[in-house]
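Internal QA ticket QA-208
Title: Verify multi-chain structure generation after dependency bump
Assignee: T.L.

Test input:
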Amino acid sequence: MANTKRLCTLVLRLMAVAATLSAAVVMATSHERSNVLGLSFEAKYNHTPAFRYFVIANAIVTVYGFLVLFLPSKSQLWRLVVALDMVLTILLTSGISAALAIGSVGRHGNSYAGWLPICGQVPKYCDQVKGALIASFVGLLIYAVLLLYAIHNALDPLFLHKT
Amino acid sequence: MANTKRLCTLVLRLMAVAATLSAAVVMATSHERSNVLGLSFEAKYNHTPAFRYFVIANAIVTVYGFLVLFLPSKSQLWRLVVALDMVLTILLTSGISAALAIGSVGRHGNSYAGWLPICGQVPKYCDQVKGALIASFVGLLIYAVLLLYAIHNALDPLFLHKT
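Actual output:
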């Protein structure tokens, strides 16, 4: 039973690393050149601070997730991992939310502020950003599940074991 | 000792409620009318989905924080509060990050996407948004401290009590 749980956790963590790594790579490689009214126009992730932050956040979470994979299962450090999981989940949430907010202006624009949507001109770039956001969101969900599971184990908030 | 800790937690939670409440109110009342090239132009928080989300997130966290204030100190529900604190901290992080990303485009613009800054036209509105973001960030910091403290108590990740 304990081994199955450990294996489940390991598989989830491996999936989280894959998700945040692909999010960082897909976002960092996203660029498209387009011509608008004769003017050449390039869309690149590093033109937008929120997307740069997204890549950095996903890269940090990937490196952390990768290192945790090599932690021996009997290590006392697992207790520290819960606290670090929480901090990095917050970092990931913040990166996704910022990128999603900007991505949504890119797709829908904001007529009140006079910001025009750009996805019509650079659809491939927008799809790539969307893919990165989805991958990162999958990573976030996995970390949220791991965290809630750790809290459940440590504190039993729903009183499933004791009454 | 236990009473001092309980009082500290209560004061922190009271401060968090005040912070998220003022963030929601300041953001929800932010609006400014301005004339640009003879055209009347109104900036309002509900013109921007990210700001609406920010207000909703802060309102939810305020109501939750307010209810938790009335939880008896001996209640077994405090264990559930840790899990709920985590979920609401993630919600708050996401609201702040999205609003900050849009606020930053409002202040600095994004020349690559052709989005012009609007804070020159509506400085009062921008200052109000900034105030709301700062208040909400204070609330977030308090919840992060409460969460790390709960994890520390439950799991002792830094091995301060046991070796």
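Spot checks passed. Chain B touches chain A through 48 residues (CB under 8 Å).
Status: verified.
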